[in-house]
Amino acid sequence: MSEIDRQQSRLDNIESVEPILAAMKTISMGSQQAALNQKARVKSYLSKLSQIQSFVLYNLKGENKAAFSQRELISPSNRVVVMAIGSERGLCGQFNRLVFNAAVDQVTKIRQEDKQVELWVLGKRLLRLFQSAKIHVSWFESLSITSLPSYPLAVRLSWDWINRFESAQLDQVDLVFYSRKGKQLETLIPIQRQGPQDSYAEMEEEWLHPIIETDSIHLIQRIMEQVVISHMYSCLLDSAAAEHTARFRLMDEATQNSARLIEELQMELLTSKRQIVTREMQELAVGAGLLKR
User: Fold this and answer.
1) 139-141 and 172-179 beta bridge pairing
2) Domain extents for the chain?
3) Domain range 3-28+248-287, its CATH number among 2.30.30, 1.10.8, 1.10.287, 1.10.3470
4) Which of 43, 140, 212, 285 could make an S-S bridge to 290, C-beta 3.0–4.6 Å?
5) Digit-coded pLDDT (tens) for 213-256
6) What is the mean pLDDT of residues 11-15?
7) Class assignment of domain 32-245?
């Protein structure tokens, strides 16, 4: 194969890849936006839940407040779950490596406090990093490669943790992931409570005083379950948005590089063709006796 044929073949290969890169870039941008839109809806829902939670806590009677706090009187189990959220697919740069490093740091910190740690992992790509480092993973599940993390996944995980927390089988659940703002460490359980009186005072002017006919303890328990589930789902969406942002940037860089390579190869191909034409013209001129060899 001549040099010009090799250049043409390389150019054809890169030009065939360019539409694929553009399509992946578009898909990543769409998935990122879908995750952010869904997260905004979850944030709005959480805001309303927090208002209701504040009102119900404000109206709890003394004996109910004591009953509500009974979990805090149980002896701690000294067991913590660290959930690391990664990705199922590659082509997202250092995304999984950053989550891996943050999770290892958090696990090390908790173990230094003489607590038992269960390392849970979401995402096959992240799991491979832990396996390569020979770090034991207590639980693993794959994520969808065609859609965003699902709400049922958040419900299933949250219910398991809530039940174990209420039965004093674990004390804390930490989520380790990367958002578009960088490393995130969220404590999912126990819930970080607001000061109910302050929160209620802020919304007292906007809300009419509702009549609570349901048992207040049962109601606040259900609200806090929904807060945990929604918080978990919000973190899953935040991680997905960051993953697709990383993939979009990578595809954008690859698209720019392919465009640059195509331009360079086209110039090289044009130069080679000009050299061939010049050589042929010189040979014709020599054959006609117009030039000497």
Assistant:
1) unpaired
2) 3-28+248-287, 32-245
3) 1.10.287
4) 285
5) 777 778 888 888 999 999 999 999 999 999 999 999 999 999 99
6) 87
7) alpha beta
